[in-house]
Every structure is written in C-alpha cells, then in structure tokens.
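Per-record layout

source: Racocetra persica
name: 29414_t:CDS:1
length: 163
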Amino acid sequence: RYSRMLEEGSFRGRTADYFWLLFLSSLLSPLSNMPFLGSPLAFTLVYIWSRRNPFIRLNFVGLFVFSAPFLPWVLLGFSLLLNNVFPTGDMMGIAVGHVYYFFEDVWPNERNSGGRRWLKTPQIIVRMFEGIQDGPHIPPQDDLAFADGLAEPGVDPVPNEGV
C-alpha cells in the first residue's frame, strides 16, 4: 500500500528514481539476513512515505489516532508485541529509510549542503528508464493533496490562475 502511494505520489514521473530507491533499499538484505522483499524493504518504504506525509492522520486497529510520522514506530511496537522478539529487520528498514529520507529530503535543503543530493539517481539508470517514464519529470512533492482523493498525483489541486 505505501509503496504504491509513494510511486503514485512522490515518485510520479520519476520511475528511475523509484527504482534507485528500491535498489538502495535492497542493499540492506545481507545485513539483516532477510529476503529482498521482506520486512526491511517494507519498513523502508513505510518510513519514507510517513515522513513525506507528516500531516496525514491514521488510526491503528480503531484504538488510537496518530500522525503518519509515528506509523513505523507503531508497526514496530505491534510486531514486537506479536512476535515477542525484537524485530531487527524492521528496525534496519527504518534506519535505511531514515538515511534515504535525510539525504534526499532534508540535507539538500540545509544551507551547508549547497543543494547537493548524495543519493541522486545515477545518469545511467535515468537513461535506462528514459523510454518508460510515465510522463514528464515532475519534481518531488508531498502526497497531502491526494491523500483524501481530492486531487490526482502531479496535478495542482488549486490552479494558479493569472500568475
């Protein structure tokens, strides 16, 4: 679910960037002894989605309501409760998601960074996906406008007329 929302929201029109995220995330598999499509990758995607959508409110099992940035921690606690074993793979996924989020969303906006993106998708991968892009390149954005189905991803919900 969160992978789809990331792909249709933050990564709309940026197939190569989404592939690069999945590739980088898969590098953690040998570190946690988990399969590629296992829990660490899922937690990486959940973490990135939750940080890019900080104002979305969620509820867990109908018991309590929280904002999206707490989702990975709620799921981690639930996993711990169910399995009675510390979920190392899940924690590894959160760590990888945090590193990706920091270097793609936080660091480039810092004054000392000079706008440099350390995890930028290599040009060879961008060229590989050039023919299958699902439209023009759209800059990164948050997914708030389409969280409630009020707008489609990549479409400005309030057009700027006369600007």
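summary: The two ends are 36 Å apart (CA to CA). Confidence is low (pLDDT under 50) at residues 142-163.
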